[in-house]
Amino acid sequence: MSGSKFLKGTLMLTGATFLSKFLGMIYVFPFQSIVGLKGGTLYAYAYIPYTILLSMATMGVPLAVSKFVSKYNALGDYYTGRRLFKTGLLLMFISGLVTFLIFYSISPWLAPKIVGQNEYGIKHEEVVYVLRMVSTALIIVPMMSIIRGFFQGYQSMGPTAISQVIEQIARVIFLLAGSFLVMKVLNGDLHTAVGLAVFAATVGAIAGMGVLIWYWVKRKENLDEFLEQSTTQSSLTTKEMLLELLSYAGPFVFVSLAIPLYQLVDEFTFSRAMESINKGGEYAENLFSIFNMYGHKLIMIPVSLATAFGLTLVPTITESFTARNTPRLNKQVSQALQIVMFLTLPAVFGLAMVAGPAIGALFSVEHIDIGEGIMLYYSPVALFFALFTVSAAILQGINQQRFAVYSMFGGFLLKLVLNIPLIKQFEIYGAISATAIGFLFSIMFNFWAIKKYANVRFNYTIRRSLLITIFVGIMVAVVQLVKWILSFVISYEDGRGQSIVVLVLSITAGAGVYLYLSIQSNLAGSILGYRFKFLQKQKRREKANS
Fold it and tell me: Per the UniProt record, which residue ranges are transmembrane (predicted)?
């Protein structure tokens, strides 16, 4: 494949991945209006364990398979890649089926571990029902990862990109239509609606698999032609082949588990910890729903955007590290971290400042009292999520991914140890604090490893971050001023319409000030200029006048 076609395919895959993640986040707003906070809690109870199992089964597999296939294709050995494809499909089907049967069987045991006694809240049988409904997706999704990776090994990104988007669209449509039908048309039970919502993962998987099968049928003749062109054939045994695949996928699996594992700790400890201080039941469920379901989805939007930009530099970081070009490596690492700070810091602190209007506009004004405080404290933690993701990717780029795994487990252990004591002391803010402490440890460990093994200095990144922080401080002041002025004529606590007005005006004013300061100071041009050429206008004028 030519360089331009490969670049086009990579950009297509990046765009499809972001679109898929974005669709997977924004659906929560209409979903919340259908099922409410209790429904969100029940949904999270099912989806978090499913995400953990799915990550363990598939995360990193497409990339690992593509690396394996492309390696042997480059050697003229197309048979080995096809062997992996067939063996991997069978293995993933068996492992998915076994995982489904285990998950389905242990659901009655898991339910009381998740919700505790909870006499007045969500019942055990309701949790069992949604756990079993979501478990069916485990039969299909793992096989999709093998097929996607195989196509990517031939530098064909279209099947992965299109199937991801179709899978997510089908999931979201079925999720919203099914829950709406049960709750608003049939006046059915909440757990039935949520059960259909989590079963949407299976519907989406079927749609995505249909796209991949269509691509396979369409391209099989061409793929078979490659087999005939093979000039050699590896003597790898099936065991050696799978061990090599696991060596590629392992680090990606562990790093991708970080956020879901933290959420899993909250799922298994929060309700019981709240019960121990006599604050369980509906109150605890509402807190958990805003924190671990709706609020989490909201703060992950800026994280996804920032990391998507920052991670584009990782391949060039690998190239510079391999060439031992330390000055260029320093510049690229600094650039990746600056992008994260530039995009995420204003987003998370801006979200914290408009937490009340955001809760009122996107969810419900009746939940502003408990939601505003949660979002105010939880939003800044999203910066840690972004920094961990990018720093872990940088470690992979300099071939020190083991330290990303060490840091993830170290932070996770801190979360595990601190969570219950902090929840008992500070309720939901204790869970947020434990998450922040765990991720902060992981980030500091990652930075230490980057500095030690890549000889990277962070002085310039720190100076730029201080300037970004000053601009964010000004932005926060403007947002607060706008909210204060608007409070004389409109209150975001009076209704969803009022919340939307306050939210839009506050965000517009804050974002406008931040962008103005960033462009006028050439901060935006320096950090993002090669991506957005118009941001470098001032810089070019300065050169022309010098």
Answer: 12-30, 42-66, 87-107, 127-147, 168-186, 192-217, 245-265, 298-318, 339-363, 375-396, 403-422, 428-450, 466-486
